[in-house]
Amino acid sequence: MPLSGTFLADLERIVGPEGLVRSAEGRLVYECDMHTFYKGAPDAVALPTQAEEVVAIVNLCRRERVPIVPRGSGTGLIGGAMAPLGGVMIGTNRMDRILEIDLTNRCATVQPGLINLSLTRAVATHGYFFAPDPSSQMVSSIGGNVATNAGGPHCLKYGITTNHVLGVELVTGTGELVRLGGKAADRPGYDLVGVAVGSEGTFGIVTAATVRLLHVAEAVKTILASFTAIEDASEAVSAIIATGIVPAALEMLDAVMIRAINEGTGAGYPKDAAAVLLIELDGPAAEVKAQGERAARICWARGALEVRVARDDAERALLWKGRKEAAGAVGRLAPTYLLQDAVVPRSKLPAIMRELIAIGARHRVQIANVFHAGDGNLHPLILYDDRVPEELERAKAANEELLLACIAMGGTVTGEHGIGLDKAKNLPFQYADADLNFMYRLRRAFDPDGIMNPGKLLPSHPACGEGFRPARPRVPEGAWI
Amino acid sequence: MPAAARSIGEALVTIAGREEVQDDDRARAAAAVDGQLPRWVVRPASIDQLGRIVALAHDAGLAVVPRGGGSALELGHPPARVDVLVDLSGLDQVLEYNPDDLTITVQAGITAGTLAALLAPRRQFLALDPPGAAARTLGGMTATNASGPLRARYGTMRDLLLGVRFVQADGVVTWGGSKVVKSVSGYDVPKLMVGALGTLGVLGELTLRLHPLPDAEGSWLVLLASAEAAQAFVERVIASPLQPSRIEFFNDRALRSVPVEAAAAGVALSIGSVAEAVREQGERLGAMAKVDGARIVPLPGAFWSRAARASTSEGNGAVLHVASLPSRLAETERAIGDAVRTAAPRGEVWISASAALGTFRVRVGNASAAETAVATTRLRARVIELAGSVVIVRGPAELRKTVDPWGPVEAGPFALMRALKDEFDAKRVLNPGRFVGGL
């Protein structure tokens, strides 16, 4: 439903002409995030510069029952920052300032549009960094990281975004500007920050965030070990963790991925390697040295073909090169792919890899794997050629089977990308009606009118979620009431 | 189909069995919360029974008060009503331990001591060490967001709780979160349950993240001339490459009761790592102390449990949890001392603080409830200026009736909290009146 002239005039009064995108071409840029399957352009894009403008926009939309879709840099992978129902998109790009850096208390307060890496760059000279490091960190916004509770390769040791958010300023679905949490720990009351992080814009829009800064580790050691079997590599992962080492990152590439990378940039992985394990340790120098030696011994003991230890930053960058180029490298194998983000318990890695190969064979699709082995977070890339009829359908079928296999092993449908529009339909794999019903009601407390990012995160239901009606326990019959 | 129950007591017996439902005066008196006697004390043997008990209470308009180890019953307002006290000590099973994944799923009534004994042979542990942890239940530690010195490195329950099964106010058994260490599937419901004092759901089952026990651990105490010197030392440690597991500040009174050597202030640190790194970091710590002209002494591992005991009140004393900022460590320490001394001339204050986080555990002794109430109010006025908070975590009902045990919550967040309570417990079945703002 197109927006009325009066509505657009009101919107323009709030953000000014330079803060409003109305043209069809202008809006096209905002029709999808990095999951390009899902397209839906908003009817207008508002680019506010301060929280008060966001409040005014939400109040305007609420009055007219117009849906709102928040968007940071649009680098999400789940169809979260697009507008399936049209409405107003609120882009945070113009709210990109660092409001305060407080090194004594190891935190910073930033606007949501600030690019993730910009914060680390701003504090790096003092020896600090912002820990969440999604692969998109050069372009993704901290507001987006907060909305999706983003992870990254180094969250094995440092935790995901939620472990680093101390407070948020949020404009809720009712247009209230609330400050949740803050620099001081242990606020009395419910942990509203904890539920707001990862709510994917369905509770409101974050207009500022106070995040933790960490001190840069004294030493870093990066080790690359290659194996002839993915089982051996998986066992090495378990053995490393079991010995008490918590690596900063523990990444794995499978045979298909190794081949794709070797054909491209020439990261120089051994040709007959079926699995490459990238281990990064950081911490006090003495600890890193001892643990590095121990991790290398474990890899040799599990039959590693070779174990390389980076001697300096240049070598370290080289070892990471293949991993960082993985998604691009598969372009050599197939024109396009579906990217999955499911999780299994770490001990189930060998089992899920076997299952994955079987699923690929069953649906006649090739699957390349690059994943966060340390926490069991898989990123299979299901390759397909969109010019071949039905290949997409087969890829989708393999994708769904894979998700179900992960759930059956005790896993979850998403480890770090989020739900968005893409996986809302998959949530019932993992949750019973009672659990989903609880989430609907949780959302209602923040956004009673359902105008914030509708259709995302929770599966739509004929009765707007009320259909996920849990069965109540039976109480003894009788005259006791 | 069970026979028709003629009374609520009978209905409870039908659900939990005769042995597990008590309504005699002695049992009721023993289970009193702030002097209020429950009408029934029920001990469910399964989460299914727990769900049916809560459903019954909900339909009958009764208040449910959950109890784990009973060690934190003095947190919060005295309850508005106590009808059914649900004793969760029967839900003490380990449901699924996956050592290779460093995760465990347990029932909420298991104690931290039992869990620690179970994990020790695999050299793993739950990195949460509030005072008295051994006898406390994990459900209770979750509901009260209890923490100890290890939070400096490992965080609090919000960082360790992966999944939770709970019973909603209408008895519906609900699951939130996941059983793996990394998941963003749907809203982070476990966060909502941490520190909620069971007011949004009765906790039945928890999936927790475990950590490997370090190869070696060393502990040291740095003795300093003042809180200011202690803060400066802590700031230097934090800005250094050292990775302590604990950085705990102690005031003079606390140091005397542990007991270790006397000093105006002390900072105790522990470092867990491989043996050579522990030794090496210990040496560096010594060098840093030397620069400050401070004395450093090695501590036995048992120091930490002794320190925990010393910070726990006996009899009618009170314990406050004060949250401020690391940059205000000395200022807050002084504010605490001033507030207590002004209100209670004979008062004594034991202070231990997670120095890197600015959270203080304050034990007040030799002060009447009225004096502690005045001290709390004074202190709150000071700490709120610093955007912090003062919560009474232990103290007589008289104290918590005189002064709000939680302190104020800003209007905006409180409106959301009330909206959540209205949504999930409109009939005020779960722990009514005890949480912030009387929720």
Structural account:
The complex is a heterodimer of chains A (481) and B (439). Helix content of chain A is 33%, strand content 19%. With 481 residues, chain A is of the alpha+beta class. Chain A has four domains: 87 residues, Uridine Diphospho-n-acetylenolpyruvylglucosamine Reductase, domain 2; 118 residues, 2-Layer Sandwich (Uridine Diphospho-n-acetylenolpyruvylglucosamine Reductase, domain 3); 114 residues, 2-Layer Sandwich (Alpha-Beta Plaits); 97 residues, 2-Layer Sandwich (Alpha-Beta Plaits). Chain A has a seven-stranded antiparallel sheet, sandwiched between helices. The longest helix of chain A has 18 residues. The radius of gyration of chain A is 23 Å and the shape is globular. The model of chain A has no long low-confidence stretch (mean pLDDT 93). With 439 residues, chain B is α+β, with helices and mostly antiparallel strands. Chain B has four domains: 82 residues, 2-Layer Sandwich (Uridine Diphospho-n-acetylenolpyruvylglucosamine Reductase, domain 2), CATH 3.30.43.10; 119 residues, 2-Layer Sandwich (Uridine Diphospho-n-acetylenolpyruvylglucosamine Reductase, domain 3), CATH 3.30.465; 93 residues, 2-Layer Sandwich (Alpha-Beta Plaits), CATH 3.30.70.2190; 92 residues, Alpha-Beta Plaits. In chain B, the strands form four sheets. Chain B has an eight-stranded antiparallel sheet with strand order 15-12-14-13-17-18-16-19. A five-stranded antiparallel sheet of chain B has the order 5-6-10-8-9. Chain B has a four-stranded mixed sheet with strand order 1-2-4-3. In chain B, helix 9 packs antiparallel against helix 13. The longest helix of chain B is centred in the middle third of the chain and has 17 residues. Classes of the chains: A alpha+beta (481), B alpha+beta (439).
